Amino acid sequence: MKRRFALFLQAVGALTLFGLVAGGGLVLTAGWWLRMDDAPRKADAIVILAGDLHRAIYAADLYNQGLAPVIMLGRPYVDEPDPLCGLGFPCPSQVESMERVLRAKGVPEGVLKLYGHDHMSTVEEAESLERELGPKPRTLLIVTSPYHCRRAKMILSGILRSHELIMTPTPYERFDAIWWNHQGSAGAVVSEVAKFVFHFLGVPFRAHPAAAN
Predict the structure, then answer these.
(1) How far is 153 from 62, CA to CA, in rounded Å?
(2) Distance, CA of 185 to CA of 112 (rounded, Å)
(3) According to CATH, what is the number of the domain 33-212?
């Protein structure tokens, strides 16, 4: 009995050590495996995942290259108003800012199509996009940040099963492979690794928890 218990402890110790080494290796190499760069090509729509405004710059580039006739953007969750808004500072919504970027890049009115409401996570964006697109298979150019591509592809491909996804990260947002040498890249890696954990635990962030049932 003592020998079995000792072997059990050794096995647990070995698995723990392996997990720590594997986890550390994944974090150190995150600057490489978080990225996904598919070659842009003709599609039915360009989809901007809500977030950094640099995504809208690249979406406009893709549109101006004639790769898709429409740009789609989900309406994100709006948090409590910033106290600066009450002091007269400009506080445009993310949708308004995205639209302004697209206009500045020459995208005409009527091209941007908004969908859904109160998206707090990529999961909610994907669910709303599935309802918006319907069952007909489409080819979609997905525009997001470089560090978000891997997780976004996992989530979107699991929900938008009938659609072809082309992951096209914006080149206007810096993300270094050697992420610990750049503060912004380091913050992105820490955030993405945490969100990966939440994803595999099956507990995505939601604006309305009751909608998960």
Answers:
(1) 19
(2) 29
(3) 3.40.50.620
